[in-house]
Structure formats: C-alpha cells, structure tokens
User: Fold this.
Amino acid sequence: MFADGRLLGVRTTSRRSDTSEVPDHRLGEEVRATAVVLAAGAWSGSTAWLPEEARPPVRPVKGQVIELRSRNAEPVARHILASERVYLVPRNDGRLVIGATVEEMGYDTAVTAGGVHELLREAYRLLPDVAEMEWVGATAGLRPGTPNNLPLVGHGAIEGLVLATGHFRNGILLAPLAAQAIADLVASPDPKWRSSFIPSAENKGRTPEGVGR
Ligand SMILES: Cc1cc2nc3c(=O)[nH]c(=O)nc-3n(C[C@H](O)[C@H](O)[C@H](O)COP(=O)(O)OP(=O)(O)OC[C@H]3O[C@@H](n4cnc5c(N)ncnc54)[C@H](O)[C@@H]3O)c2cc1C
Assistant:
C-alpha cells in the first residue's frame, strides 16, 4: 500500500504485515505483486510495514562530504586522489568534492564542524592546494550498512520479499549489477545470479575486508 509515494504496508497471502501504526485513511493505493523488493537504503532495517523478524539488519552510516572550487575554474588535479581517510574528486569546472566521513550516528544528517575539520585536514595532507580554494558547501547522507558491510541481495525472510539493500559505500557503483541480479531473481525460475551473488542468508559471518574504501 502506497500513500504520498511511500510504501506504508504489505499484506501477504499467508499473513498481514504490521500496519497497526498507520491510520486507515493513509493506506492509499493498493498494488498487487508476486514480489516486493525492499530497496529502502538506510531505512531498510526500520521498516514498520514488515514484521520485526523479517527486517534485515541494516543500519544508517552517516557520511559527510564537502565541496570546494578553484579560483581560476581550472581542475586542481587530473585524477581522483585518495588516502586511507579521504578521497578528492576533481571536476572539470574547477570544483573539488572531498569525501567522506564514516560515522555511526543513527539517522542524524547534520553537517558538523568536526566532520568538516576532519575532511579538510585529511584533504590538505593529500593536496596542500586545497588551502587556497573557495568554499562551496557541505552535505551529509546515509549509507545502508550491514553487520559485515556486505550487501544483502536475495530472498528475504518471508515469501515474496526480496532484499536489495546494504550496499554501504558502493551502492552507486553496484547499482547496475544489483538491479540485474534482482530482476533475474524475481523474473526467472532459475536465476543465474543465485549462487554468484550474495544471498541474505550468507551475509552473517563474512568479513568486510576488501569492501568499500
Ligand atoms: C557521503 C556519501 C558518499 C558516497 N559515495 C559513494 C560513491 O562514491 N560510490 C558509491 O558507489 N556509493 C557511494 N555512496 C553510497 C551510496 O550512496 C549508497 O550505497 C546508495 O545510495 C544505496 O542505494 P539504495 O538505493 O540502496 O539506497 P538510497 O539511495 O538511500 O535510496 C533508498 C530510497 O528509499 C526511499 N525509501 C525509504 N523508505 C521508503 C518507503 N517506505 N517508501 C518509499 N520509499 C522509501 C528513501 O527515501 C530513498 O530515496 C555514498 C554515500 C554517502 C552517504
């Protein structure tokens, strides 16, 4: 059931998910489907419309980024620069994106002095030229993290529920692959990704080495 573009509740043939906190007048359009793909990003673990036991172990991981620009509108570097703590992405118009903090702060998306300080300090160590650049702005977002920070892609805990979440720091990079895998999983009786991708049941116990930056 959708209202105002948000999924508010799901009824299955065998059980009804918990929509008790949702007033009836908000349960707008009903959409029938054989599968429901949970792709709610950092909110995937706090989906009130799913029974608690079916909610995947996804938590929000805050990331702050800042943007500077060169005074002459020329790129300050020809390539992406990266250290263990920061990455610098030069744009052709002279802007420089500096990211990103990794913070366990729940759903907080405030830009903080500490976050900006950390990014500027680490960026300066990598490229002292940043000290001469103009300030453009800063923003913060939420990544979907899992216990081992590997994606949760596969069948969920109740029939018809498909998980496409937990992509942590690589959700943009992995979007085409994840979309193909989920489409295959939902549409095909014998999906080719079943063994090669990462099903939800195997998420626990895997190590995060080599994943993300
Ligand atoms: C600062 C920062 C820098 C990053 N840099 C990179 C990078 O360089 N490369 C990279 O690959 N990844 C990067 N990421 C990670 C990437 O942004 C995430 O992995 C990716 O956005 C996850 O995609 P998603 O679709 O699962 O979740 P999201 O992009 O968060 O989308 C989930 C959507 O679901 C919506 N939603 C939630 N609940 C409901 C509901 N009940 N009904 C309807 N809609 C709902 C939300 O409003 C949201 O729009 C970065 C993240 C941050 C914060």
